[in-house]
Structures
1.
Amino acid sequence: MSTIFKKQRKKKTNEHLSQSNTPGSSAPEATTSDMHAKGSTAYERTSDWTVLFFNCLREISEASEMLAPLKSTSMLLIRGLETTMHNNRSAWEELARKLALHHTTINGYISQLEVGDRPSSNASQDALKKYAEALSAILREATASADVAGTPNLKKTFKRIGDTQIEKDRIAELSRDADFAHRQFDEAMRIIMARQVTELQQQLDRVRAEIMQEIGELKSRNDLPDFDEPFLSLVRGQDLDICEQGTRSEILGQIRIWAIDEQIKSQIYWLNDAAGTGKTTIAATLADEWLTNRTLAGRFFFSPNSAATSSLDQFCSLLAKDIALQLPEVRQVINARIREVSTACLRFSQQFRRLVVEPLKLVSDKRNLLLVIDALDNCKGRDKLLSELLLHLPSISSVKLLLTSRPLPDITDILSTSTLIEGYNTCLLDVYNPSYADVTIYIRKRVPKLEGEYVDLIANRSGGLFIWAATVCRMLQIYRRPSKLLHQILDSQSFKGLDDLYLQVLEQALVDKAAHSLFMNILEAVTISFQPLSISSLQVLFPENDKVDLFVQDLCGVLKDGDPHRPIKVLHPTFREFLYQADRANGFLVRTTNAHALLSSSCVVLLLGVLKHNILGLSYQKSAIPTNTHIENVNDLVEQNTTVALKYASSYWARHAAASILESDVQEKVMTFLSTKLLNWLELMSFRGCVGQCIQGLAQLQTAVAMIENRSDLQNAVSNSYQFALQNQSLMTEAALHLYTTPLAFLPKESFISERYQRAHKVLIPVVTSAASTKWSAHTVLTGHTGHIEQVAFALNYTRVVSRDTDNTLSLWDIESGSLIGKQSAGSVKGKQVAIKHFTVSPDGEEVAFVTKSNNIYVLSAITGALSGEPIDASAEEILHITFCPNRRRIITSSISSTMFNVLRLWDLEAQTTVGNPMRLDVPTTCMCLSPDGTMLVSVSIYGHCPGKGLVIAWSLEDYSQVVSYTMSRVGYMKCIRFCPDGSYFATWTRDGTIHLRLGHTGERMLELCSTRTNDPVDDVVISPSGRHIASYNFGGSTVYLWEVKSGLVLNHHTLVGHEMDIRYLLFSPEGDRVVSISLDQTVRVWNTHTGEGLQSFFTGYTGTIMLPELSQDWRYLLTVGLSNQINIYDVSHQCQGEEKPGDERSFAVPVIAFSPLGDIFACGFTEYVSKPYIQRWSVETTQPLGEPMTGHTNGVRCVAFTSDGQIIASGSDDCTVRLWSSSTGNALWTIPTEMNTVERIAFTFTGEVMVLGSNHKIYVINTKAKNVVWSTGKENSNSELVLSADNSKIAATCDNGVGIWDVLTGKQMARCDISGRIFHLSFHPQRDLLAICSYTCIYLWEFNSGQIPSLELQIKYENGFQLGFTLDGKYLLYGDLVWNVQSKRPRKLGPGDIRVDLGSYEQSLIYRDGWIYYVATRGPLLPIPSHLREQFFDWTAFYNLILVWTQDKLPVLVDCTPFFH
């Protein structure tokens, strides 16, 4: 065996130097052949160290880049002192320690100076050289003291001293000299740094500002990730081997000729052959060669080891970056476009054109430029790339492309017929007559010590397959016993193909057969992980496996990289294929289910041990719990408190679990995790900005556990967890730490999460009591909209939902998981203040165009939710309607122009300009519709001089002329046009019940249809896919009208009856044999289109109260919009059923509420007229009703009030009466008729003997004991707001254009002031003659006894629910969360940190605003309200630590925030 490898020669000193060129690198090891000599190790180290030291010292003496060599010199000296053996070792170690401190200082100066900087003053250079001389003196003494074996060469370098000891005082002297020299150098450097510090600080401030601005812009966009150099090297093939000299000469020569020969017009050289034949090595060789001679335009090497290198997601941006690197001429253009496109998420075709094609066209040098795209077979979506290449390359004749791939059928089908292809029949490996010459050369280069006969044997065994030879060479280079390995390879008769070689690699790596299980764990994790894992991450995930590093290093023949912190990559896809096939792996089979179970368990175990509440360690004990945006440097904190392994585990544990959920161990770990760490996980993912991954992972897990039998507990746990995350995803995005607060409080009482988490986080949870029952929905519920949803639609082949609300928010949702993909809000669209008023979805569903109120048109990707390009500025006109063209990336708008009444325009989205001539009308367009082929546009307009009369015009989009026009009577402002799916005809309809059918291309009259109930307005018309059937329903009608038409004739007519309320939606099945109708009666009915008979519905039960129903064309998904601004998604394919009973109608009644003085009960009535108006008493403790409703009023209740002793409840109504009730029994006590048209305010004095009533006409003062009217004002007064003074002696009330003050007993008006505008609130100061008056924009402070008009104005903005009042001590005035100190003549506005008074005695210390509960004395929001519940908070009432709201079912919900005040 000793003859297999050539004898090793002793390495030269300069070889050591070349390996240790980097400052700070460790000294090279001694050669193997010299290891037998006694003392040679010390000799080698000392020799190499000494030569390196003097080389570095020479650099210092030549004053070139002074600091960096000095750093290397000092480091080498320290290592030398530590390595060599000395007498007086402790003294030398102390000197080494001191030099290490010097080294740290030098390193600090280097880090402060720019690369290449050096001290510029003579003083600093002199000091630097003196310090270097001191180091040299130490070196001479140290080498003399070294106790090493002598050699002739060593004697030439060192003076042999033998056992002579260096006296300690000599070492001390050296130390003092070094200290002195270092102090001089340090002082010189400090002077230099002091001179530079001001300018440097200014530069840093400017750079920091620019960086923060850029970061802000990048965060607002979906920018290209800032990939690190190792990743870019992977993409560009820079870490790949190149062909050894003398190999592949023939094919390289052919490609080189093709590249430079301008007579060869074929622009694509397609190098295709089987896996492992060396295509990638050839591509890397030529890319490197073309890079050197500056003909390379760009390169991209596809690989299955990374998502970014195995798809087209980042292809254009990464290729463009390389083009910019190679071609400075277009660098600026590309960089600008990368920023634009990375935020825009354009389609791939648009990205390719903008980032690759157009910049290459701008290159002025017309010499051949060469692109390299390798391993196309590893790319997902490669057909799109090939299509773009074949489409655009002919337009860039100066560009040629080297393309490599395996000859897969889909690639061959596309390229085999193209005239652009060269090298189609190139064959790298002739399996019948393989050539071994190139493989032989390769082996000799890679393993130069291998004897020739063995080189030939390996080459013959390779069969000409380079991947085989390369794997063997790597094995021989890294294995500890290469000779034994070589014999095993060559002696085995069955060792022929790649499978045998891979098997040998695995067997060699598995030295300890008893460790097979641990070995397979690592192999499975590396090959099955969703993202490449590093050695360090694997060590964290598998802490019990102490051989991770050893296994990976021993698998370097098939894996890369051995660096502990770099992701491990499988070198060739054939190895992964080998492991996954049972008939090939032979004991090393990777079973995907087992592998996923392994990683799932490892991830969960890691998360169980690491996750905790407040994982970032934030301190907020004396302030409100912070939201994510209020945490400084949250991203930095995440990096500091997480590892790569933790990030992987938190991102992918659920996906691994879903893929292996049938394993019982996985089931138990999932159950444990959800029972203990669910909230901690959601918190971490919120901080990481990965909320969507949570919901998608839980959605996959929910689908997987549904297949398990007899595990209802697990199914319930996963379902509850998914519903919790889904309902709170808006809050998770906004405030991670608030997941432990109100979301837990509003859980269903018997839910899996409430049972396991409410007690653990009790201190953070407000107490919520409600008479309304809560339960998890069986269907998906999308929450997050805060305004009423006005528009909803499907997109992207029914995998996305787009919605828009009255708060000008546009949301994009993933329909499978319910996760929020993207969101555009008012003020957030490219940083501009905009309001979104309408959107439309492209016919292919991939894009959404929306119009803002500033009349700009934006387009976003339905795939990613990111904006596409710059907006189209159409602000010169007011856009009324917008729709996509069906066959090109264009849109049509209908708008009102300043010069003409109405204009229809065609816009090209890529050019962002109008196309063709505007189509002008003299009347406004109410709706428009495009033909399926995009050649005709039909518009409907209403004549202004003749209300209801409509004009229909069919326009040709080829020449923008009118094809036909006709009038219709009674046209409404809703949609009234629809084309037949095949374009053969279109329908328009009117409010008089007539449907007009016209031929699609000519507009000629075809047929008119009328329902049996004439003159009823048609609300909508739908047409079957074949065009044979037409269905309609009338406005306010519950009947479906169905016609069968053919060749302009009505064959059948059916009237479909069955709904009990108005119909809101119709849709034909894809086959056209059925039609579905959805009604306000909350049922879904299906009808046979041929017979008109009712069929069994695919949806049983009730939809709940619905608005805007939508059904996917395949009838799989039903969307409805609920009362609380949520979107319900019913997946009919999963047998998702409706509710057991119909939901209530939307109630627009406003609750009027009063709490008893003791706070134990509250009374409530409603303002709307109901069949039986009532007041109900409720328990504060249980929110359950007390007794029967108190009835008697005949109209809506406007106000309620308690007497100060709580014994009597008074109610005022629109029926012009006031009624008094017993608060304990609810019995009626007294009815007081008034001359008011409504009673809006009631107030009692302390004793309850006097009751004050206010309306918009009069004030009544009533003696409740005598039951008579004491006094009243005249009808000319408007007194809708009133308040009693603290001593009950005065009444303040609004009157016509002002405020008046009256004496309670006499009715005498004591003062009056004039104030314009509406007044909302009044409040008396508890001690002074001061009245606070709240208008829409300010608060007036009126000293009413002075006779002066209000002179002080406090600026505010009125908000619903906010109250005005003084604190009991009179020091503070509060309005909502605004506080003023009113002790001085000039009130001072206070911040939360300035308030030093206990506001617990102030009833209105809690407020609700924009989805959050605030406490006046706390900085920031106190508690969030889940978005799906915010609709209920439209009318809220605060009472000390309580906030009371009402559901749509008129049931109370009481939120007690007391835990947060203790």
2.
Amino acid sequence: MKKVFTLSSKSQTGSGATKIAWQPQQGNYLATCNTTVHSVDIYDRHGEVKEEVSLPGACTGISWDKDGDQLAMIQEKSGVIYLWDANSRKLSKVDSGLKDTLSFVSWSSVASSLAIGTNKGNLLIYNHQTSRKVPILGKHTKKITCGAWNSNNLIALGSEDKTISISNVDGDTLRQPAIRGEPSNIQFSTMKTDERKSGTEETTVSVIIAKKTLFLFNIEDPDNPIELAFQPRYGNIVSYRWYGDGYIMIGFSNGYLVVISTHMKEIGQELFQTRDFKDYLGSISISFTLGKAASCGDSSVKIHDISDLKEIYGIISLEDEKDNLMKLEWTDDGQLLAIATQKGNVHVHLTRLPVLGCGYETRLAYLTSLLEVTILPNFHEPENSIKIDIEVEPSFIALGSDHLAVGMNNRVWFYYFEESGPKKLNEKDYLGTVNSICLNDNYAAAMLKNKIQLHLIETDEYDLGNDRETRLFPEDDDKMVITCFDLSRSFLIYGNDAGCIQYFYIEDWKFVNEYRHGIGIRGVYCNPSETMLIFIDEKNDGFIYNPINDETVDIPDFSPTVKGILWEKNTECQFITGSECKLIGDTKLPFSQVPFLLYDGEVICQTQNGKTSTVVLNTHSRFSRLDELVEEELQIALTQCLSLRRFKDAWNIATQLSQKKFWLEIGKAALQNLEIEEAIRVYRHLKDVGMVLSLESVKNVENKYLLAGHMALFLEEYNLAQDLFLTSNTPKAALEMRCDLHHWDQALQLAKNFSPDEVPYISKEYAQQLEFMGDYPNALVHYENGLTNDAEKIEENAVCTAGVARMAIRVGDIRRGASMAAKSGNRALCRECATILEGMKQFPEAAALYEKGQYYDKAATIYIKTKNWSKVGELLPDISSLKIHAQYAKAKEADGKYSDAVQAYENAKDFDSVIRINLEHLQKPEEAVRIVRETHSVEGAKMVASFFQKLGDFASAIQFLIMSKCTNEAFQLATTHEQMELYADIIGDEASHEEYESIALYFENRKYYFLAGKFFLKARKFAKALKYFLRTQPPGEGNKSIDMAIETVGQAQDEALTHQLIDYLMGEVDGVPKDATYLFRLYMALRQYREAARTAIIIAREEQTQGNYRVAHDLLFSMCQELRKQKIKIPSEMSQNLMILHSYILVKMHVKRGDHIKAARMLIRVANNISKFGSHVVPILTSTIIECHRSGLKNSAFSYAAMLVRPEYRNKIDLKYKKKIEQIVRKPDKTELEEIQQPCPYCKYDLPQTQLDCPDCKNTIPYCIITGRHMTVDEWTNCPKCNFPAIYDEFKAILEDEIACPMCSENINPSELNKVADVSPFLHPEGEE
């Protein structure tokens, strides 16, 4: 609540009661006086003294007439009444003729009558219009202290004689009730009743009695007055006011504010009560215009909203006037509130500003005080506001890019504003009252009644006389009445009562466009980009007008109460359907707020207190809080975004919703709005490659209608697309679209107009469509129209010819159609026509066409239907259908021609029938057996089995019964005729466990234990199988039964059965230990590889002892391979034994190849372990001596010769070598060829080639399976079969000599060898445990 001015006690001397009175209606003047001062001061709304009326005595009363034209003043010294004219500002006097002191004055509320009361109770009624005076002496016996007029021109007076008089304008007393105390503050109003008549008269007089009670007197019911008393704690009644429908607001001296109702049912009840002030309450006042109530007390004024008294609308704090506030008075318009104090001060506050404001782009200008305008260059930056003090209280404001215009009546003041501050440019007087004004960058346009004056805002001496300085519209000779206008950057636009809208182009200073609507124009509103205009006609209908093409669009749901229109900054839009307008939402503005700028969905409004507020439109309210919205609200927000073309926000919403259908909605909206780039972005996000490529191909199309046509096509609005294409500069696009869509009927119509050359092609396509739909007569016509004489269109003519043939048959012209098909030489056409004829039951013609088209199977089928067997027989070599051959065979069989029938059945692959005829009719069982064996026919096997059974050949019968899956019959036959072994052999491994068990039981009953065990094993009855295998003793089957027992235990993996077999093998059952080989095989079967390995070592030792070195070698090798496969570490003893045996085996190979040094080295290794070769000590030592001597290893030869001539070996030496050996001993030669040294692959330490234990790193080095030497890193290879290491060159050399691998005895191609680059896996094998 801004303070406007204060009248201090310096100008209002004295301390008596201060009276204040605002001029009614206009509120331009405030009259004040003090009961101790001999003058009345009159101020304007801004606190400037306009008149000071001196009086002979102290002022006792002041009163304004109903129109605010006359101010009546009375004083205590004489009976003269002073009247001040507000219009002429002249003072006049009227002599009342009354001799006593004047104490009361009041103007009528409906007429120009003035009532004056005196100290002695006399009354004068003065008619200012007629100057008639009506004195009424003795109206009261004592001083008249208060009074009031009502709407019926009755006056109620209160006097110190404790009576109230109610009189008419002539002074006649109508009622005069007595009261119990002195009256004060009389008011007229209407009490609340159940039934309220229209135009209710003010019949209730209310008055405060002795400051304690409120007296209500109804003129129409004088016998039932009401006197209301209140709680003593409230204090005295200070003031009260009627408001609303019979409600009274009462202020009490102790600070309480109470509201009561005058309805009889509610009398005595307090509807509202509050304590506004702690110490005291001075006065209350109500502004019906504002809907506000004010109370003063303590050191403040509190303002309540009448609609909700609990809410305090505002507080005016007056700390310097503590306990002095005593009087409140509001102007009729509610803009100003005057507060009088006991000290004689008067404070005037602004409670409601005239709502004046204007917006221009992002700029705002609005009234913030009666003489102050605030400008916001950018409404988003209120801190950069510019304050401009103006000279008058304006009635209108206009804003431009750099200028401000304010004015009233016919005068306008122009200001220029910039960051450094505002400055006044000039003021201009117009020829008439200015109704409104608009500004742009350089010009101002003022509406003067029915004319518009356009002029430059800033002029200088160079502009004087310039014909573009000013212009008046319309011209003098034009009788039109301008009703509205708008000024944009480039145009002055106005409408008149004849419905004409004119565009005046300021730059060229001429009219450039005219639109005639036919109905008077009430308002025009141009958009910021000047491309569209909204106008409202006298019927209150709204339209959008496009000045470029004179197109108008109705605004739907346009309210007839529209007061103005605000354009959003970005209003450019295009639709594939052309211009379009639709309602997308509405928003209710707060009460008493006036909008004057719209930006990005925010409406900037001016409030009554001189401030701005921002109202977000309902259509935009969700955009700023998308993260808070649930899915349903997000969907609504998305719809609003698309309606507003806010694709960026729509993208964010769709990202949150994350559903394909919402992306499709955005894409569709983008297409509808011709937003090609946005549509490409959306469909690229959807990974719709086809749509993206289609949009990319048309995005650079410049013709609007052609582009819109493509968008309509993408939206599947084909009729609209066609219309747009036809309107564009490429009408043929409509034809192309219809062809692509296979809309051949529309395409044919378009082709006749735009491309006659395409009529045959379209006729052909249309005919095919009609044929598919079953419209054969029209299809025939279009096929015929599709035929041309163009030699280049051979394929098209062939299609049309085929279509004519088909359609001719369809419509009944069979001869023509069949003839055309036969002559065409087209197999497919012959088949199509034949199919049609077949469907029409025209079998002979259909068969002939099938045969003509080389569809022999179909032809034969129809010939069979017609029993034409001769034709079928002719076609048999060309027939591939088995069914037809079978039908033909049946016919021949029925005729008794069995040989022909057999041939036909064979062609039909019906071998069961071939077998049947061979057995039953041709007596060729061997042929039947051959066919059964070749075809494995189950039914055929049954027939052959039955045939042999009849002949008594049960073995053959069993064989064919099993072949025919009749195992039960075969089993019974085998049981009956002692053919079970044959049955078992035939059934093989394909039988079920139950069948094997049945066979086993058969052999069990007949004491054939081996066979019983064998089939119990197949039936997976392991305990029984083992039992019978161990009982088997016949010659030749013993070893085999042990093998089967081992297999049984291996499959069973049962610990008890395993122990049972081990006991048997160890001889604990019969006292005869079995060969250890069986125990080895058992462990292998049980996958107990460690035990198998130990057993293998024992067996190998026995074999080695017996001299079977190769057998022992192979056993150890196979065991090593198995352990490797199972990733089990090979025992060192096994590896060592295998190495020694392999070294022995290598000797023969090297000797044979003439490589004696290698043989000698291997023999030295064997001789060093001669104890393992006990059966051949002498031969091995002899060979060692010979090879060492031959290889130059003389010392080694001597050592082994000395060993050999010992007594235990000497007599066993071969005589052929004995003398030579003895000579070596007698004449020893201890020279020795030193062995080559090579590095250890682990630690690189050099050691002899044949030494396998590295003395440095203590590792056992892998050996070469070719040379027996230790491996080196450089020449490492592995046998592709056994994976044992070898030296690459050595291995390759023996393979080239066609020698098998000495370790695994497998033949290997030299090309399979590869050098190993990384030998670490072989030096450190993983997984071995």
